[in-house]
Amino acid sequence: MIAWLGFACGLLLLGLTAASVIKTFMIPRATRTRLNMVVSAAVYGLFRLLTARVDDLPRRERILAVSAPMFLLGLLTSWLLCLFAGFGLLLWPSAGSFPQALRESGSSLFTLGFALPAGTAASAIVFAAAASGLAVLALLISYLPLLYTAFNRRETLVAMFEALAGAPPWGPELLARQALIDNSAALPELYARWAEWAADISESHVNYRTLVYFRSPDPAASWLLSLLAVLDGAALHMALNPSSAPQQARPLLRVGYLTIRKLAANLRLPVADDPSPDDSIELTRAEFDEAVQWLRDAGWMAERSADEAWPHFHGWRVNYEAAAYQLALHLDLPPALWSGPRRPGRPSAAPPRRPADRRPGLTR
């Protein structure tokens, strides 16, 4: 009776494992299983502990960069262990003892072939075990190129953004640098590209949640900080220059804040689904005034004063600020202006360093 009860538990365990594998690899939508959640909590919880007292940014980013690959390895290990135990439980009634059943399960699952069971039913189970082990490994191998293709596609635009908004990126600096080099005419195309990029992030990072935890190669850069900076830049542009702001800024803001909300909801972070324009934001009026003066010092020609622009900027930022701040805190991103609080003890944010003017005849 105990062996047949184990047989029933084996069926249940194999069903849970199959659900985890299928939802992870074969269903292109936001799904979650208990097994994935347990592995995710264990792996990322461990890395939070490891970096709790690491304040050196490059070192902390090197450690956190390992977390996403370790999650995939942990998930693979948990699947193989569940298959090993599940098929062992199925073989228990025919093997006579549970240790012998585990021996036959491991021999088949890892295609070693040193333990062969007797009987047609047991043979069918070990064939299924062998096929399951190979299938899981094949699916993971085919899954990795998809992840790294999406990662490279994401990071190409993030790397380009460093030259436009600094590292770590900051929305006002994006507009200021374009004013300094008289390049504001390039902003419409930039907004359009980032709207497409945000839509790609919404599709890939929601469907394949592991991508959220892949860090940018540059310790001071981040895909989320870049998206937040370009949204702030577009919101400032529309708030300060309503008649001359490019039409591409509005769809960028819409796609961008929907993307950030989806990502936060997918990670079960507490954010409002549809905040009111009158809701409060954490960014203060004083910080906004300093940013407007920063733009004026760079030569940005605004149509509105700070007093006139503030309600409009507030109305845009309320749509994405809370979700972006929750994500930045959850991912322990590098400190950046206008990106919310970090863990206690982390260094404070500073404006991005602006490259020196190297034009001939100017004093360095």
Major sheet description: none
Q: How many strands in all?
A: 0
Distance between the termini: 85 Å
Number of helices: 13
Give me the strand/helix succession: HHHHHHHHHHHHH
Overall helicity: 55-70%
- In terms of structural class, how would the helical and strand content be classed? mainly alpha
Q: Radius of gyration from the CA trace? A: 26 Å
- What is the overall pLDDT average? 89
Number of domains: 2
Strand content: under 5%
Unreliable stretches (pLDDT < 50, length at least 5) are: none
Which word captures the global form?
elongated
What would you say this structure looks like, in words?
This protein has 13 helices and no strands. The longest helix is centred in the middle third of the chain and has 46 residues, at 120-165. Helix 1 packs antiparallel against helix 4 and helix 4 runs antiparallel to helix 6. The protein has 364 residues and is an all-alpha fold.
In short:
This protein is mainly α. Helices cover 66% and strands 0% of the residues.
Question: Notable features of this structure?
Answer:
364 residues, elongated, mainly alpha, single chain
Per-chain topology:
Layout: H1 2-25, H2 34-50, H3 57-64, H4 67-95, H5 98-109, H6 120-165, H7 171-180, H8 187-207, H9 223-240, H10 249-266, H11 285-297, H12 306-317, H13 321-331
Helix pairs in contact: 1-4, 2-4, 4-5, 4-6, 5-6, 6-9, 7-9, 7-11, 8-10, 9-10, 9-12, 10-13
